[in-house]
From TrEMBL:
It comes from Ridgeia piscesae (Tubeworm). Pfam families: Prenyltransf. Forms an active dehydrodolichyl diphosphate synthase complex with NUS1. With NUS1, forms the dehydrodolichyl diphosphate synthase (DDS) complex, an essential component of the dolichol monophosphate (Dol-P) biosynthetic machinery. Adds multiple copies of isopentenyl pyrophosphate (IPP) to farnesyl pyrophosphate (FPP) to produce dehydrodolichyl diphosphate (Dedol-PP), a precursor of dolichol which is utilized as a sugar carrier in protein glycosylation in the endoplasmic reticulum (ER). Belongs to the UPP synthase family. Pathway: Protein modification; protein glycosylation. GO terms for biological process: polyprenol biosynthetic process. It is a peripheral membrane protein. This is Alkyl transferase. CDD domains: Cis_IPPS. Keywords: Endoplasmic reticulum, Magnesium, Membrane, Transferase.
Length: 340
């Protein structure tokens, strides 16, 4: 058995090197579906199925790292999941407490890999004690920048887009941006995921063929791979097969992405030109100079506006962290935060 395991490991490593000859997705997103069906299939409690699912996530992160994937986003808990039975929701919240606490106990591993853990979603909907634990993990890892794990918790894409739209409306109302500044690009920069590139590859296990309100805006140019295996039974070979599928579609996706980028740039140029023309009703200044000046001012406005949003979101977690009981947060760590 030990020999066979060594052979399998060697073959897997060899296949990884072959895959690396082609394009490797920088960012993989995963809909981890099938935990409950796995539990039913194995005559286990639902909570045990979710626990097996978390163990599979840790394995999958290792496989992604071996392939050279630098960012992984997982759909851990949808806002819609709050409609499940109270017993199951409570079990999932308790599992989350345990596993986020587990991350804090793996500080050496996290620092060694430069892992930044972000929690994406409407975290205010979660129990206060879970928010406390999450804030500690976010604080502990926020300065790392080599690899990234984004955990979508209390998340739906529709809620995310609505939140971004509210930010834009408030930005106009408060004078941070102009109504004419609003664009697809700026809306993207207002999403929870604005620090991440859009996912190159989205995986969904269990055989279901839908995105279930996950990264709807960000998935326009993602390769979608629907895998007929329950999440706890997902293997490294399933991952490699998905990467092969991504590589087969890579050229077409990149061409479509470049075309879209050119279209957005042209739409923005036309918008800027229209705004300058409106301002120049009684002005004789050179249109080209005015256009360049307007573009620079717009870029500065939108950059400052996005910075305000980022600061507000970081402050949400920092405020929770600052108010933690001493028993949950060491004084030295709090001093580190206060010195930032």
């Amino acid at each position: 058995m030990q020999l066979w395991a060594s052979v399998k490991s060697w073959i897997g490593g060899f296949c990884n090197e072959v895959l690396k000859v082609g394009p490797i997705p920088r960012h993989i997103a995963v809909i981890m579906d099938g935990n409950r069906r796995f539990a039913k299939k194995k005559s286990l409690e639902r909570s045990e199925g979710h626990l097996k699912g978390f163990d599979k996530l840790l394995e999958t992160l290792e496989w992604c790292q071996e392939l050279g994937v630098t960012e992984v986003t997982v759909y851990a808990f949808s806002i819609e999941n709050f409609s499940r039975s109270q017993e199951e929701v409570d079990g999932l919240m308790e599992l989350a407490r345990q596993k986020f606490t587990h991350f804090m106990q793996e500080r050496d591993m996290i620092e060694r890999n430069g892992l930044c853990i972000r929690v994406i979603g409407n975290v205010s909907l979660l129990p206060k004690d879970l928010q406390d634990v999450i804030s500690q993990v976010v604080h502990m890892t926020k300065h790392h920048n080599r690899t990234f794990l984004n955990v979508c918790f209390a998340y739906t894409s529709r809620d995310e887009i609505c939140c971004a739209m509210r930010e834009l409306a408030q930005g106009v109302q408060m004078g941070h941006i102009k109504e004419s500044d609003i664009s697809e690009t700026l809306l993207s920069q207002c999403l929870y995921t604005n620090k991440s590139p859009d996912p190159d590859l989205i995986l969904r296990t269990s055989g279901e063929v839908r995105l279930s309100d996950f990264l709807l805006w960000q998935s326009t140019f993602s390769v979608l791979s629907f895998i007929k295996v329950l999440w706890p039974e997902f293997t490294d070979w399933d991952l490699r097969a998905a990467v092969v599928y991504y590589q087969k579609n890579y050229d077409a996706i990149q061409a479509a992405r470049r075309t879209k980028e050119l279209e957005l740039a042209e739409v923005q140029r036309q918008s800027d030109y229209a705004c300058v023309q409106k301002e120049m009703a009684q002005d004789t200044a050179c249109p080209q100079e005015r256009l360049q000046q307007y573009e620079l001012h717009r870029q500065e406005r939108t950059r400052n506006f996005v910075s305000i949003i980022d600061t507000k979101r970081e402050k949400f977690f920092d405020d929770i962290y600052q108010n933690l009981p001493v028993s949950l947060c060491t004084q030295s760590s709090k001093k580190d935060l206060q010195s930032l």
